[in-house]
Specification:
24 strands, five-stranded mixed β-sheet, Nucleotidyltransferase, domain 5, 2 domains, alpha+beta, about 500 residues
Length: about 500
């Protein structure tokens, strides 16, 4: 029997699994589509039963692949999320998702006043934002007191799967470092005084690094998943950090760009750096630290446009967007269609399309959306450099890398080369690699070598500098108007 490693990632719009041989060969993949629920303004949730059901389904499918046997399991998932359970580890409500859920704005303000905004950044590395776990726990206290009173444990997708497989209550250090303001990123441990202020009732999970073995598959999980009894399961981590692992973007000076429903950026830095506009976290790999940024929408906008235009696939829109040319025939878009995370941290920001005429085409709008996400990347990169980040190499990953126009536009607008790896599956592949590394000597350079390097078109630099200046001016010029519109939307 050929040994293989299973990696499963629970994402916002789908769960993905991959079966990888010891030499890095991808043997099989599986995907399960799902949807989030949006029960109210700014709310984005998902039932944790979906995570386990899809893991079981994927495991059963991939575990029947050829003459192979799974010898270790890797996990990752979106985050930081808030799934609370009772004393019997039963979920009390759907999980509140990461920064795309912006319900806790009042609690962010109150918690910042209670603990002190400067003190929070000094201790935790990041300011409070919609990404933070603490305010969402306070939201539960305010809005669902019965749920809050019964809450005893806190899970995220990867730690929930780990519990289901092994019975162990463990979270990785990186995910914990995003539980602002409950984690001290200097001491690398839970900060009990503030944990007691936020959620004294919770038993906080033990901490391990993402690639450490956290337990072995118990009998009930083996029977349900068909995975071998007793094989090791790694701790796992948040999907974007698993994506960085999947392409080897974990050395100081590396920047990972994740092209997906949202855009994510992770810069590995030489020391603990803080920024008022970005997230400062522990890395997925022991001894590493990151500056990170995340946009609330990117690929989600292009998907929305495709549905709006009734286009069955992206190929026609991409072709028309290429013909549109730099600047989309005089359009500038703000990609804040679900608020924005970094670097403006404004849940009430909204999408803006400036310069529209009756002569503009779907291709122009599609190109404007792609350029908007590229301008957002440039804005985040500028914030990283301002905070002391040193970007030496950019590695791109995710489904958006399959179409070259988007990645080329990011290079043209940022002036950065991008390394495109051979395998762009992403987080599930990174989880499988961490599982393999926990049991054997493997190298990500062998598993996933760089296949292509995209270089910026320097002839377009002046044009895009001019457009970027307009992009940066558009948000402050429209901020008060879109905030008023967001208030109307929330009341509706």
């Amino acid at each position: 029997m050929r040994e293989a490693f299973l990696g499963v990632d629970i994402g916002t719009s789908s769960s993905k699994g991959v079966l990888v041989a010891a030499d890095g060969t991808v043997l099989a993949t599986a995907t399960r589509e799902h949807q989030v629920s949006r029960p109210g303004p700014g709310m984005v949730e998902m039932d944790a039963s979906v995570w386990w059901e899809e893991f079981v389904s994927i495991s059963r499918e991939l575990n029947t692949t050829g003459d192979t046997t799974v010898v270790a399991v890797g996990l990752s998932g979106m985050g930081p999320c808030v799934l609370v359970t009772d004393s019997d580890n039963r979920p009390l409500r759907p999980a509140i998702l990461y920064g795309v859920d912006s319900r806790a704005t009042a609690q962010i303000a109150r918690l910042a006043e209670t603990l002190g905004s400067t003190a929070i950044v000094d201790r935790c590395g990041s300011a409070l934002s919609t990404q933070a776990v603490g305010p969402k726990l306070w939201w539960l206290r305010d809005q669902e007191p019965e749920v809050y009173a019964a809450s005893r444990r806190l899970f995220m997708p990867s730690s929930w799967l780990l519990y289901q497989l092994t019975g162990n209550y463990v979270l990785d250090y990186h995910s914990a470092s995003q539980c602002t303001p409950m984690f001290d990123t200097t001491a690398e441990d839970w900060f009990r005084p503030w944990c007691d202020v936020i959620a004294p009732e919770l038993e906080l999970p033990g901490l391990l690094w993402a690639g450490e073995v956290a337990g072995t598959i118990h009998a009930a999980a083996a029977a349900e998943t068909t995975l071998p009894l007793g094989i090791p399961v790694i701790t796992g981590t948040i999907d974007a950090w698993s994506e960085a692992v999947s392409v080897g973007a974990t050395e100081v000076g590396d920047l990972m760009l994740m092209y997906g429903t949202t855009m994510f950026l992770i810069n590995t830095v030489h020391e603990r750096l803080t920024s008022p506009t970005l997230w400062s976290t522990l890395g997925a790999v022991p001894g590493t630290r990151n500056l990170a940024g995340g946009m609330a929408t990117s690929g989600a906008i292009t998907g929305w446009l495709r549905e709006l235009f009734g286009s069955p696939d992206f190929s026609d829109l991409l072709a028309n967007a290429e013909q549109s040319g730099p600047g989309a025939n005089g359009l500038i878009m703000l990609p804040y269609f679900a608020g924005e995370r970094t670097p403006i941290a404004d849940p009430d920001a909204r999408g803006v399309i400036a310069g529209l005429t009756i002569g503009h085409t779907p291709g122009d709008l599609y190109r404007a959306a792609l350029e908007a996400t590229a301008f957002g990347v440039r804005h985040n990169v500028q914030g990283m450099r301002d905070a002391g980040g040193d970007i030496q190499r950019v590695v791109a990953v995710g489904g958006g890398t399959r179409g070259r126009l988007w990645t080329q536009l990011v290079s043209d607008i940022t002036g950065l080369e991008q390394h495109i790896p051979t395998v762009t599956i992403g987080a599930s592949f990174g989880a499988a690699f961490l599982a393999a590394r926990s049991t054997s000597e493997v190298s990500i350079d062998q598993w996933n070598p760089i296949a292509e390097v995209l270089t910026p078109n320097l002839e377009l630099a002046g044009r895009y500098d001019e457009l970027y200046d307009l992009y940066r001016r558009l948000y402050p010029a429209t901020e008060s108007i879109v905030h008023a519109l967001a208030a109307l939307q929330n009341r509706a």
